[in-house]
Amino acid sequence: MTSQDVTGKKKADLKVVILGAANVGKTTLIHRYAKGVFSEHPNTLGASFTLKQWKNRNVAIWDTAGEERFQGLSNFYCRQAGAAILAYDVTERKSFEELKTRFTQLLAAAEPNRLAVVVGTKHDLVEEKGKAVEREEAVLLAKQLNPNISDYIPIFETSSLNGLGVTEVFETIFEKCLRFDAIATHLVNSTIDLSAQKKAGSNNSKNNCAC
Amino acid sequence: MSLKVYDIYPALEKLNSASDKAKSKIECIECSDKNLFIGTNDCYVIHYLLEEVKGRNNRLSFKSERHEHKYLGLKKPIEKLNVAKALKRLLVLCDESLLMLNMLPLEPVVGMGKIKSVVSFCINPNPVRKNPFSIELCIALKKRVVQVYTLTEDRVFVTKEITTQQPSVYISMNASYICAALQDQYIMMNTETSTVQDLFPYQNERTNPLITLIKNNEYLINGPNALGVFVTTAGMSQRPPLQWSESLISVVCSYPYVLALNDEFITIHSILDQQQKQSIPFQGGQFIAEFGDKILVSTHYQIFALVPISLETQVQDLLSDRRVEEALELTSVMGKVQLPGEKYHKLMKKVLLMAGFIEFANMNFENSTKYFLKSKLDCRELIILFPNLLPSDNEFSRSIPPLHEIADILQLCKGDAEKISLYEEFLCKILTAMELNDSNKQYKMESDTALLKVYAKNNYEELIKFLDNSNRQLHDECIDWLRNRNRHYALGLLYGIKNNWTSALDIWTKIADGELEDEMFPGIEYVLDCLLKIEGDELVWSYLEWALKKDPISAVKIIIQRQEKYPQSDLFLADSIIDLLLPYNRAVTTYLEHLVFKQETKEERYHTHLAALYLERVLKIRGDSTETSTYKLSTNTELVSARKDFQRILRESSLFRVHLILGKLKNTDMYTEMAILYGKLEEHERALKLLVHKQRDFVAAEEYCEMYAKGRDIESRRYLFHSLLQVYLDAKYEKIDNLIGPTISLLNKHPAEFDPVRVLQQLPENLSIGLISSFLSSSIRRHLHGSRTSRIHRMLARRQHLQVKSRVFHEQQTSITISDNQVCDVCNRIFDEPTCVRFPNGAISHIQCSKTSLNPFL
């Protein structure tokens, strides 16, 4: 029994959703990041959910099912996502094509200025099976999906087996999506501080006047 | 994780057909308080009263009583029944018509028509406009319209209408939101803003559209692929979906559980963790509905009640399966949700305790410790498992209902000694841990006693450490326990903790005397140390003699230190102590040394006594020694140090009776000492003679002079040094030549102390002048210096004399006049004769006045 309810009740500061064809290793990727170990998982039914703390902020990571029959639900679970991970298998051409045909359109349900990170999985299998998707193609896709981003390209090639690039994927997302947030709240806070001081000051002057 | 969350009981064994012709089948059910309404396939509404009956042993059963029935005459099955409690009405959906019946008796409401073309309807449980005498009704029509009605006693009217893309097949309304299943899509409608939000598609032919309200703003929807999808009114999901089985018929939510019915099973999920908790095989399920805190589920002919198993029972079940972790987790997750704070904590404590005992029985000590400490276990609960560890007069009895099934440790270990000792070790550890975090305060005596007993049995070293803490609270039973196990030393410690020092000392002295045996006994020093520390002078006094016998010096130290510590104590008077110490020479010496040197007592008898003791010792050593040669004796370190001590008192003390000591010394060759004594009597010549002629220690003789000369005037000094010179040059004792060396050195070293004229007269004629040249030249120098200084003195005196003379002369030059009017400055009367006194300040008075004490000028 996990206590997801307790944490689930908290309003998450960021919703991250992972999309991609069946068997590209979406659940494994999340599990690798959250638990730090490699594990194999049966097909995800519908969706599952992991809550992660990042510098006092709550991040809800939604894992979706890759099978086509869950397409409608995946769309639903994408709602209000601040970031999406579009995962494909670097050794499976079909998974990359499916990403373009089936999954990129799901991004419409997410936040308008969402971050879309293209992630190639199973990089450890390249030697054995050969690379089916060149990095350049993924870079191109990442650029297309994030027309507003110019200073970096959100694309990663990862391996959940040996941990290659896994942390970077999530850290980049949190860094990009939450840091700006953090600055904003900080600014708000400092404004409040100043006005509070002012208030105190005016109170004092009032007291002085009374005598 | 499988768990028993609900128990199933028959509630209505058999539905009695309303009509005799055909057998009615249950189509739908609805409850309100004890009223159970059944809608049948042949268009009957049947009213039952359903009651819970608690039989013996708290066994639950249900009693159903059929009341009345109403035939609606539509020949179609009744699809849905809803009670509108505020209006005491029953809403019936049958043949696409929504009818209204009065609940009691079941009669159609007069003047209320039916609403036609209704596909689905529901009552809004939380209407936005709250009028207690109206209800809000939401209806999906066959057309692509969803309508919201307000229903009062006598009126029904539409308040809102929303058009949808397709006709709705199932709706659920709460507050201002309507969640609806269209033919292939779920949607969320906001009646305030009339906005419609698509949720997700589903396949009508595969999925039975079902919508269940979970909380105010959250629904659970039967989604595609048998997923129970949570949807908030904002059109989002905040929980992962439930995994249901295919072909669900009916779903009901009883927080935090969701019960779903299909034709073979009732499956129960927890909303909190989305896991399936229980699955009850149930053939032919038809409908599932809430009934208070219970759930009713019907087949075509029967109704069963699902009764929630209390959290306590669930946890108990887990614990009896030894599923400790799960029980704890269930308690912490569900307890917080279901139970009020205090009850939760009580349950949690109980579960922790039981978990602790389960792990305890499994020898899983780490977990057991964790649970016990967390539960703040009453330590007696644990101690009582160990035979004889609780004091026999302790009235503690195990808590009821029992927390465990352990009779005692012996039974648990089946007598395996190794296991038992492991358990005992655990007991010690946990009791110590409890002591550290203070959770055992109330039962400190029981805890400490148990610890003592176990340590006494198994670990003597730990026992000693344990007893080294005067805050222990120990039962008197411990005394016998320790005695029976020959832990004598520990027993003494125990007496000490109980402040029974008499017994403690009694035991320890017995161990020290070898009457009792104890390997851990640290030795006599320990007892002596105690004698120093404990209070109660009489007690200490009574053991002093014992201590003196064992170690006189330490015993004396005890006396001294106690005296310093308790200066008022009148038991330790010097005289009585000395009397006590008398048999122990060294001890009495030490004590007297303390009195004389440290305390600087003024009592003559202590000084004399000490001096006599020193002397006695010196004489004893000399007497014991077979050596007669002086040289050999002088290398006898013991003797040397004894004499040093003796000399020390002779020199430093001036209070002892000199003649007494001197008399004792008369017949010995202890010339140094005798010299000191003569010195004390100011009989310097005799002293010096002894030193020079008997002792032949010229250095000592010179030092003697130096010592007595210190701080004296020149005459006394000269007397001393001349006495020594006289002794050196005295031909009565030996030839002068033998002493020429020291004589010369004396003269040359201290020329200032001699009168050279007398020296020259005394020195033998034939002495070479060269030997004393240093003495002579320095004498001459000093004399010359003296003569010159005298001259200067003389001249200075002369000058002073002249000055005085001059002043006298000047004074005599001035005159004073005494007239008739002149008044005496002292008595203020006139002078009647010319004689007067003049004061240095010029005042004049009668002669007699100058002598009176009144004279202000004197």
Automatic annotation (TrEMBL), chain A:
The keyword Nucleotide-binding applies. It comes from Dimorphilus gyrociliatus. This is DgyrCDS8871. Gene3D superfamilies: P-loop containing nucleotide triphosphate hydrolases. PANTHER family: PTHR47978. The keyword Nucleotide-binding applies. The lineage of its organism: Eukaryota, Metazoa, Spiralia, Lophotrochozoa, Annelida. InterPro entries: P-loop_NTPase (IPR027417), Small_GTP-bd (IPR005225), Small_GTPase (IPR001806). Belongs to the small GTPase superfamily. Rab family. One of its GO terms (molecular function) is GTP binding. Keywords: Nucleotide-binding.
From TrEMBL, chain B:
InterPro entries: Clathrin_H-chain/VPS_repeat, CNH_dom, TPR-like_helical_dom_sf, Vam6/VPS39/TRAP1, VPS39/TGF_beta_rcpt-assoc_1, VPS39/TGFA1_Znf. SMART domains: CNH (SM00036). Keywords: Cytoplasm, Protein transport, Transport. PROSITE patterns: CHCR, CNH. It holds the Pfam family CNH. Residues 23-295 form the CNH domain. This is DgyrCDS1228. It comes from Dimorphilus gyrociliatus.
